[in-house]
Design goal:
Layout: E1 2-14, E2 21-23, E3 45-46, E4 49-50, H1 51-59, E5 64-67, E6 89-90, H2 94-97, E7 100-101, H3 107-117, E8 120-125, H4 132-143, H5 150-157, E9 168-171, H6 184-199, E10 206-209, H7 217-227, E11 236-244, H8 254-280, E12 288-297, H9 317-332, E13 337-342, E14 353-356, E15 359-362, H10 364-372, E16 379-384, E17 389-393, E18 399-403, E19 405-412, E20 415-422, E21 429-436, E22 443-449, E23 469-474, E24 479-481, E25 486-492
Parallel strand pairs: 1-21, 2-5, 2-13, 5-8, 8-9, 9-10, 10-11, 11-12, 12-13
Antiparallel strand pairs: 1-16, 3-4, 6-7, 14-15, 16-19, 17-18, 19-20, 20-25, 21-24, 22-23, 22-25
Helix pairs in contact: 4-5, 4-6, 6-7, 7-8, 8-9, 9-10
């Protein structure tokens, strides 16, 4: 048995609720037949949106939802998604799944969905194929006070007189790749153009610049150097990182279990190194990281559509473990992170939901976000525990090892949330919680997400195969963290 120290004198900062954000792109089955089924559908819905998904999504208290892309944003014309007559256009992803964009879901509909689930919107604006004025006009349409501008009056004619008051705006997406194949210096010039027009509109706005892909530190350096005298126009700096292709999504081997987790653990080093560059240019005073795409990327075709929905994959306990350790990393580096958005909400990549026709289920990843929601808006504290190395063979056939435990803890309003992931697929871990500077009440609630088979996942046929179990524990005794298991403990601080 090891002691898990919770050091209340060592506060790490406040965990922004937006760190637990989500992402929904017009790709595959995310929007259509995922979130949206239509008002006349036989599927139970609220204003055309799946009721099951609305209810379950709202239950995990989603703080923010990114839309409409992704790469889709870089060909999106916001005017196609307003008014009664909607244009049908080639979708960015048409070449992959032979679908077209009906624009049935546009700005108003997306805002309706956000209101239904109780989340804030984060809009990704097109930088690649439109002018800065086009983006400025979208902000004007969304945020100008009732009756003030022509766009505000048009918004009212389309059914919403009051402003949407959208706070978060991404200026471009992946401009190092699908968003124009730009250099960081060129993108910085474009960002200056777009942000200069956007920033001077009334209202509280957070402008987010396109950052790097994974460990591309050259992009961060080049952009920061180009922006050093224009920092106040940038409030967030995005980072995309996927841990990808460690075997089959479901039938992975023991080594592939660890290979995926190893990739996920690299997130910590990646964000720390990008942050050090930001600090090197003195930009930390104005800007924090926005990790607005993260998650597992497996070979697609393992989900319910069997490849019809692009990038659809089944989510097992391995994906839940990646979610748990990634969120622990974010909690422990909350001083550097403004927002994060797991990719994506439904039917795509690291999804929380799988849906099709009348069926809709939650994945194991959903349960992790539910178990971790107590961290939102809480003060993170430092933890320490003696680690054990777990050995495996990496993708290159080399001997490798990772620590067996991932931990984070936070407190607010007299309660402590402690989340622990046991990365070992073979050995349970036994811990004694040892607070420093505070005392816990003896009894606490503990949720455990673990399965005998770490390949376990939910399907339309078995929608509750993977479920967390809740129990009461005595904190004076050891806590068992099952192998390949995730635990969330809610403890009260003794007055």
């Amino acid at each position: 048995m090891e002691k898990l120290y919770l050091m209340f004198p060592e506060e790490l900062g406040e965990i922004a609720p937006e760190v637990y954000g989500h992402f929904s792109e017009h790709i595959g089955g995310v929007i259509y037949d995922g979130i949206w089924v239509g008002k006349d559908s036989a599927v139970e819905n609220v204003h055309g949106f799946r009721k099951f998904l609305i209810d379950k999504f709202a239950a995990i208290q989603p703080p923010v939802l990114r839309w409409p892309g992704g790469c889709f944003a870089e060909t999106y014309d916001w005017r196609d998604g307003i008014g009664k007559r909607r244009a049908v256009r080639p979708n960015w992803w048409t070449r992959n799944d032979n679908r077209y964009e009906s624009n049935e879901i546009g700005t108003h509909e997306f805002m309706d969905f956000c209101e239904l689930v109780g989340t804030k919107p984060y809009l990704a604006a097109n930088l690649t194929s439109v002018t800065p004025l086009h983006v400025r006009n979208w902000i004007d349409y969304c945020n100008s006070p009732e009756g003030t501008t022509s766009y505000a009056k048009e918004r009212a004619e389309n059914g919403h007189p009051a402003p949407f008051d959208i706070k978060y705006w991404g200026i471009g997406n992946e401009n190092w790749g699908g968003g124009g194949n730009m250099t960081p210096e060129y993108y910085a010039m474009e960002y200056r153009r777009f942000s200069a027009l956007a920033d001077n509109l009334p209202g509280d706005k957070i402008l987010i610049a396109c950052g790097p892909n994974g460990a591309d530190y050259g992009w961060t350096k080049g952009f920061m150097e180009s922006m050093a005298d224009s920092e106040k126009h940038m409030h967030g700096f995005s980072l995309h990182y996927y841990c990808a292709f460690a075997g089959d999504p479901v039938a992975f081997s023991r080594d592939e279990w660890y290979q995926q987790l190893q990739q996920a653990l690299w997130m910590e080093d990646i964000l720390k190194r990008h942050w050090s560059i930001i600090e090197g240019y003195g930009m930390q005073a104005w800007s924090k990281l926005v990790i607005d795409e993260w998650g597992c990327w497996h070979p697609d075709g393992s989900g319910p559509s069997r490849g019809f929905n692009l990038f659809e994959q089944q989510c097992t306990m391995r994906d839940a473990m990646v979610s748990a350790l990634t969120l622990n990393i974010f909690n422990n580096h909350c001083d550097k992170i403004m927002m994060a958005n797991v990719a994506q909400l439904v039917n795509n990549l690291h999804a929380l939901f799988l849906a099709g026709g009348k069926d809709c289920i939650v994945t194991p990843t959903y349960h992790v976000f539910d178990m971790y929601k107590g961290h939102q808006g809480a003060t993170a504290i430092r933890t320490a525990v003696k680690q054990q190395k777990v050995a495996f063979t990496d993708k290159q056939g080399r001997e490798a090892g990772i620590d067996n435990l991932s931990v984070s803890a936070s407190y607010k309003c007299g309660s402590v949330t402690i989340t622990i992931a046991n990365l070992s697929a073979e050995e349970d871990s036994r811990l004694l919680l040892t607070p420093v500077g505070r005392q816990f009440c003896d009894v606490a609630k503990m949720q455990v997400l673990a399965e005998e088979d770490y390949h376990a996942h939910n399907t339309f046929e078995e929608p509750e195969r993977v479920l967390p179990k809740t129990q009461t524990v005595d904190l004076r005794e050891e806590i068992v963290i099952p192998r390949a298991g995730i635990v969330s403990i809610e403890a009260k601080i003794r007055e």
